[in-house]
Design a protein that fits this description.
The complex is a heterodimer of chains A (about 425) and B (about 160).
Chain A (H helix, E strand, L loop, with lengths): L2 H40 L26 H20 L6 H17 L7 H13 L35 H7 L6 H30 L4 H9 L2 H8 L5 H16 L3 H12 L8 H9 L2 H22 L1 H4 L1 H9 L7 H8 L7 H23 L4 H15 L12 H6 L3 H17 L2 H4 L4
Helix pairs in contact in A: 1-2, 1-3, 3-7, 6-7, 6-9, 9-10, 10-11, 10-12, 11-16, 11-17, 16-17
Chain B lengths: L6 H6 L16 H47 L7 E4 L8 E6 L10 E11 L2 E10 L11 E5 H5 L5
The chains are: A mainly alpha (about 425), B alpha+beta (about 160).
């Protein structure tokens, strides 16, 4: 290296050290502005992107304009670009600033309306069916409470559908029925916020335990566009499942294998998908405590579910099979079908996708047995579930994200973020050709 | 052998080396390359499929906007609530657009449906025929009447 080059090297580093925090701050501002734009415009209601909802953010009305596809998609793209910048510059973000940014995004979404999904109203409907009407949400859909005030807010497609969520989640939601409809929505929003805070706290701890940068890990998860706008904005119970998933990982890292396996089972009794972690965890640790913890919790959970909901509360497999048959236009399976000139996904495609998923999971199990990082294997399995599912929603591609943020295999993070990017790209059609 | 090894782990030691569980994965650059190549290929396929879907969706939206515009120009009614229906049976680009013949809530008046075909030219498509529907009826074959244009010869109406 020349003398001139030697003298310039520290200068370049100093310059980059100077501009990086400023650029990261600019990215953070973009995230806050994009979230505020969506929430303020959404507060006005009367938009295809904002589900019909009880009055939540009335005091925000009048500041923004009606949220249309164009503004929403531009804000989502800006958010995504800011997130990409932040992810690249995460080393320049201090712990305090990262927490402040994530807390601000959470606060903005919390005070706003329910965004993009009616699922939270289904959660409340199931709770009200059980508490107010004495109906079993595993045998009846919200259509059985047409005179209840929550009924009008439940999505059209779900009015006749029984709950697909686990019995622990259903029991957890029951107290919210006592708060009235508006109170229950606020309660669900608060629950989503708490679950998100727990997920991020546990992601931080797991990143530290693995020698990864905890600030980068929480920025990757807590400032993610799909996480903030879709999962938090819709107060989805996937956040509770993810909190329990990260609790199980943290417990494994602190060598409490039995409690970790029990926590995965509790998570699966909230939303079944997280059960995918259990075989990888058991194969990696091979501890008797795990098997006993999992079986004991499963037995207790099944007894509780049977006592409260009868046999239908125990039969989660039936609900999973029902949901697996659904097809969404955003699923990668549908996109590939269109690419090959097919109008959509056919029953044979469901079978092929299930077979592909089995092959992937078997490969990952074998790799885990031979010493591959079980956290990464679990993340790949969750990612494979979302890619092979014919019913794909934004918050499904979030499942592997906290695992990817702490994984030893960085390909998992790249793959997860790439798929999220493709999901966002797929939303852009109305931007290029708006329908009048 | 570790003092804390369980009988189960002792039994696993009896497995052939290639089948034994390992605490740490052995380095395998070839395997890593194969897996990464497979991931890149899958990623490419998904990316192409996504872009293809966006392009298809854009074309469909473009066509539907032209359909709505054409209906308004042909009927002379600038109604907002006009419904479009795509050919989901044969997946052609022939669309049917229905709307009220007189002002009123959606589908609450006698409706006129136009069948749109061909490319979008100057923001419009060709309406080569159509039919009427009674008020409060969906566009089902049994409700159609007074077919006109090409749909008359095609037998799109039962009467």
């Amino acid at each position: 290296m020349s003398v001139a080059a030697q003298s310039e090297a520290p200068l370049t580093r100093t310059r980059s050290a100077n501009w990086a925090p400023a650029l990261a701050a600019a990215c953070a501002l973009v995230l806050v502005a994009a979230t505020a734009e969506i929430v303020l415009d959404g507060a006005l209601g009367h938009s295809i992107l904002i589900p019909k909802s009880p009055q939540l953010a009335g005091w925000l009305q009048g500041i923004g304009e009606r949220l249309g596809y164009r503004v929403f998609l531009i804000a989502l793209l800006a958010f995504s670009a800011g997130y990409a910048g932040l992810a690249l510059l995460s080393r320049s973000v201090s712990k305090r600033w990262a927490i402040a940014l994530i807390a601000t995004l959470h606060a903005i979404v919390f005070v706003g309306p329910i965004l993009l999904s009616t699922d939270v109203f289904s959660y409340i409907a199931y709770a009200r069916m059980g508490v107010e009407h004495g109906l079993n949400p595993y045998t009846h859909g919200p259509a059985s409470i047409v005179h209840d005030p929550i009924y009008h807010y439940v999505g059209q497609s779900w009015k006749k559908t029984e709950t697909a969520y686990g019995p622990i989640y259903t029991l957890l939601s029951y107290p919210f029925a006592l708060l009235g409809v508006t109170g229950a929505v606020w309660g669900m929003k608060a629950l989503a916020m708490i679950a998100s805070a727990l997920t991020l706290l546990l992601t931080w701890r797991c990143a530290l335990a693995r020698g990864r940068d905890p600030v980068a890990a929480i920025v990757l998860v807590g400032a993610n566009p799909l996480y903030v706008i879709y999962a938090l904005g819709g107060a989805h119970n996937d956040l509770i499942m993810m909190a329990l998933m990260m609790a199980a990982v943290a417990l494994t890292f602190s060598r409490r294998d039995g409690a970790a396996a029990a926590t995965v089972v509790v998570g699966a009794l909230v939303k079944a998908t997280v059960a995918a972690l259990l075989p990888f965890m058991i194969l990696a640790k091979r501890s008797r405590a795990q098997v006993l913890g999992a079986l004991g919790t499963l037995l207790l959970g099944a007894l509780l579910a049977f006592a409260v909901f009868g046999i239908d509360g125990v039969n989660i497999v039936a609900a999973l099979n029902r949901d697996a048959a659904l097809v969404s236009s955003d699923s990668f399976a549908t996109e590939i079908a269109h690419l090959f000139g097919k109008p959509g996904v056919f029953p044979i495609d469901h079978d092929l996708l299930k077979a592909l998923l089995v092959v992937i999971v078997l490969h990952l199990l074998w790799r885990t047995w031979r010493g591959y990082d079980w956290v990464a294997a679990s993340g790949w399995a969750l990612l494979a579930i979302s890619v092979t599912s014919t019913w794909l929603l934004a918050w499904y591609i979030l499942w592997p994200l906290p695992l990817a943020a702490i994984s030893r295999d960085r390909r998992l993070l790249a793959a997860t973020l790439a798929l999220q990017g493709l999901f966002i790209v797929h939303q852009l059609t109305p931007l290029f050709a708006p329908v009048a | 052998m570790s003092a804390r090894e369980t009988p189960f782990e002792q039994r696993l030691r009896g497995l052939p080396p290639r089948l034994r569980p390992l605490a740490e994965e052995l380095p395998g650059p070839r395997r890593w390359r194969i897996e990464t190549a497979a991931l890149v290929l899958v990623g490419l396929l998904l990316a192409i499929a996504t872009v293809n879907d966006v392009v298809l969706g854009t074309h469909v939206n473009h066509r539907l906007v032209a359909d709505l515009h054409t209906w308004r120009v042909y009927t002379g009614h600038d109604y907002k609530n006009v419904s479009t229906e795509q050919d989901v049976e044969h997946f052609t680009t022939t669309d049917v657009v229905c709307g009220n013949t007189t002002p009123g809530p959606p589908k609450e008046r006698t409706q006129i449906c136009l069948q749109m075909t061909g490319p979008v030219v100057d923001g419009r498509r060709a309406a080569r025929g159509g039919w009427y529907l009674p008020a409060k009826r969906e566009d089902l074959y049994r409700y159609r009447y007074a077919c006109f244009g090409t749909t008359k010869a095609e037998g799109a109406c039962p009467r």
